[in-house]
Specification:
507 residues, alpha/beta, Rossmann fold, six-stranded mixed β-sheet, 26% strand
Length: 507
């Protein structure tokens, strides 16, 4: 259903009544028109994708559909009947649930306790832990997730925790399930399990709302796709009748060819030489990163890429090999040493490792350089403002002010904060671990252009990504990892996607 100009009810046969219909749905915040009046229908048993840049209105739409925030105006029609949908409990009672990009469960509790959170099994006021573990295990096994129910949630990977969040939502009698970037932290195998579940739920009549920046997932799973841009619903298409190029153009008003922006620079002197490095999770890895060069590391999650980087960066000890920094041997035993040499790390989990979410944007940006902004025992307020505002402007960070809390920003803008603080510091080698997870295509293009800016200044980049098109299109040298080892090395686009995947999987 495409956007219509009026909000009058449309006559339909009884069997064709949408499970949920939005009529003129609108949300305003003070000074922000987050979602302009939108008409949209979700059909029973369809996979309906929602795409758009960060700040386009996707998060606002999720909050409205799940009762987290009240609408400013418009109607929400559930199975032909108007509904307030004004609280999360009301949404859950109707059968509306969401699986969020960032897992919002309790890591200190068991997997089973998280699945039954708020609906615990008790007897005489005591929790029936064993019974819950048995039932949770049955739920997990039935969904096809090979995960234990009795272990603490914190013992699982981020991707596995995402699957548990999915199991929790699917087990609550859901009729309308929203996925927000569900594969951001999943391995290929875990993503395949999730896709199988989505198809199964669809066959059982569950409506799926699927939000993702990965176009290949949209075309693999969705029946229809709706595009948001700057708070406006600009169109709805049948997936079978559109292309990724059309969707990108609707989202950002530019072509898909402009996304992977790669400039070519003269390759300079070596910055870092890793020679036969071994350590926890990686073995006998050798590579060189030079000025003006992007070196990519590709492999499935758990292949040893991040472990190797943590060894180079001093976050965990090495057991063998040597590191040369600009031609001289160095023994990096701590992150502080790596930073002092001129290394900068933008970690995979920006929320847990890259940001202080309860601090302001400006404070986060200036964290590595407060010693430079200090006169005696006093921080220069003027220099602090200037340093933060420069990065906010240069990186086009969308924030109400430098004092806004980092947690209030979108994922893409949070990633820009992480990058901005290291630009302030001024590094020679930038390590980006999954830099575009959960960010939209427009922000990806901005980050890739930033790579070019760093290279032009004589820096080198080590790029770790599980998204093959990213490293394939950008890396001057691409190293493939599997099982903790470096199994292949290729020049820029020297081999096909298929060969790289075969090397990474080991088939």
């Amino acid at each position: 259903m495409t956007v219509t100009a009026t909000h009058a009810p449309v006559a339909r046969p009884a069997a064709a009544v949408p499970i949920l219909e939005l009529r003129g749905l609108e949300k305003r915040y003070t000074g922000t028109h987050a979602l302009k009046p939108a008409d949209l229908a979700f059909e029973t048993g369809e996979v309906h994708a929602i795409v758009g840049e960060n700040g386009a209105g996707k998060s606002t739409l999720i909050k409205l559909l799940t009762g987290v925030t009240p609408r400013t105006s418009g109607e929400m029609i559930w199975k032909g009947q108007a509904t307030d949908l004004s609280t999360p409990n009301e949404a859950i009672a109707l059968g509306i649930n969401a699986v969020h990009q960032e897992v919002v469960l309790c890591p200190h509790l068991t997997v089973a306790a998280n699945i039954f959170l708020g609906d615990e099994h008790t007897s005489r006021g005591l929790l029936k832990d064993r019974a819950m573990v048995r039932e949770a295990q049955k739920i997990i096994d039935d969904l096809g997730f090979n995960l234990p129910a009795g272990v603490p949630l914190s013992s699982l990977t981020i991707g596995q925790q995402q699957l548990i969040a999915t199991a929790r939502a699917a087990s609550r009698g859901t009729q309308f399930l929203i996925f927000d970037e569900p594969t951001a932290y999943l391995t290929r195998q875990e993503a395949a399990q999730l896709f199988a579940l989505i198809r199964r739920l669809k066959s059982e009549g569950v409506t799926i709302v699927y939000i993702s920046h990965r176009m290949e997932e949209i075309f693999e799973l969705a029946d229809r796709v709706s595009v948001l841009r700057d708070g406006t619903l600009v169109g709805t298409r049948k997936v079978s009748e559109t292309t990724d190029a059309e969707l990108v153009a609707l989202m950002i008003n530019r072509s898909i060819d402009q996304i992977y922006h790669k400039e070519t620079f003269a390759i300079g002197a070596p910055i870092l030489d890793a020679r036969h490095l071994s350590g926890p999770g990686f073995d006998d890895v050798s590579l060189t990163i030079r000025e003006g060069e992007i070196v990519g590391l590709y492999g499935l999650i758990g292949a040893g890429r991040s472990e190797f980087v943590m060894g180079v960066y001093g976050r965990q000890p090495r057991t063998a090999g040597e590191v040369l920094w600009q031609g001289r041997p160095v023994d990096i035993r701590s992150e502080r040493q790596a930073i002092d040499l001129g290394m900068a790390l933008a970690p995979e989990s920006r929320r847990d490792q890259g940001l202080c979410l309860n601090l302001g944007v400006g404070l986060n940006i200036n964290l590595p350089v407060f010693d430079r902004l200090t006169r005696g025992l006093t921080i220069s307020a003027a220099q602090e403002r200037q340093a933060a505002d420069k990065q906010i402007a240069d990186l086009r960070i969308k924030t109400a002010s430098r004092n806004a809390l980092a947690l209030s920003l979108s994922g893409g803008n949070q990633q820009k904060i992480v990058i901005g603080k290291w630009l302030n510091h001024g590094a020679k080698l930038f390590i980006f671990d999954e830099p575009t997870v959960g960010v939209d295509v427009g922000t990806k293009a901005e980050i890739y252009r930033l790579f070019g800016r760093l290279l032009s200044q004589g820096a080198g980049i080590l790029l770790i990504s599980s998204y093959l098109p990213e490293v394939y299109e950008l890396a001057d040298q691409l190293h493939v990892f599997r099982g903790g080892r470096q199994v292949a090395t290729h020049g820029f686009k020297a081999v096909s996607h298929e060969q790289i995947l075969t090397e990474a999987i080991g088939i």
